[in-house]
Amino acid sequence: MLEALAELVGNGGHEKFRHLVERAQQLDPVITAVAHPCDGVSLESAAAAGKLGFIVPILVGPEARIRDVATSHGIDIGGLEIVDTEHSHAAAAKAVEIARSGRAGALMKGSLHTDELMAAVVARDTGLRTSRRISHCFIMDVPNYPNALIITDAAVNIAPGLVDKVDIIQNAIDLAHAMGVEEVRVAILSATETVNPAVQSTLDAAALCKMADRGQITGAVLDGPLALDNAISPEAAAIKEIVSPVAGRANILVAPNLEAGNMLAKSLSFLAGADAAGIVLGARVPIILTSRADSLLTRLASCAVAVLAASRPRSKAAAQP
User: Fold this and answer.
1) Which of 60, 112, 137, 239 has its CB 3.0 to 4.6 Å from that of 95, i.e. a possible disulfide?
2) Which residue ranges does the chain devote to CATH 3.40.50.10950?
């Protein structure tokens, strides 16, 4: 398996993502419905993850088009099941149906728009909703940062309220445990490390920390509000005299809203050379989100994280409605 990984992506760099892929390879493969894999990037991602043995892809989309893409890009899809649909909208609905039936343990975005897939996921009568709010996590492989860093929510919840943030944080904590993180440290971000009644995110942070104290959020130690420097830099935390098991050592960063989270993740990617795997949680199955701009290793890491999440028993809070 390790030789196959090296053959696909080479041997250099991004050890955190390689570790996630290797960890997923130790588990049973997860049947994964791939919605509309009709370009080279999405089809290559599904086929490569299948070759590495941690997913079993079901390709859902126009069969003739999928086979044309495979031929034109030299992608081996021999032996993979194809469920023929007319177009991307039908592919999203069918892939969700396969996951809803229990046949697939994960869902993967192909070459359709994220909104199109998520519309099928959140459909009230036919989708994959649970009692847990759906949220997105970026898993960041940041050079010179010791561990993989989870940023949430940067893609689904635009302006989450306090109740939404409880689920967003719990989803991220559960993911961290599935990834094998032994001590989960959650920093609730704002522009300052002190509570300011004029800044709503600081009030939310204070309330969320107290909710964790009362057992309403479990599995991690929380602190906030924390500014970004205080959350990830021990030196900055020391200068500000912040005494906390989280400050300077966070492995989950909770953004106050989607705009802040998205800008943070993309700043790390484009200014700090980080790679970002993506996954949506809180549905009946984990949902793999990849980008055409991602490296193959990053796309494989997204698949690996979903396998790890799918293999971890869900808490009661994430049970079906």
Assistant:
1) 60
2) 1-132+282-321
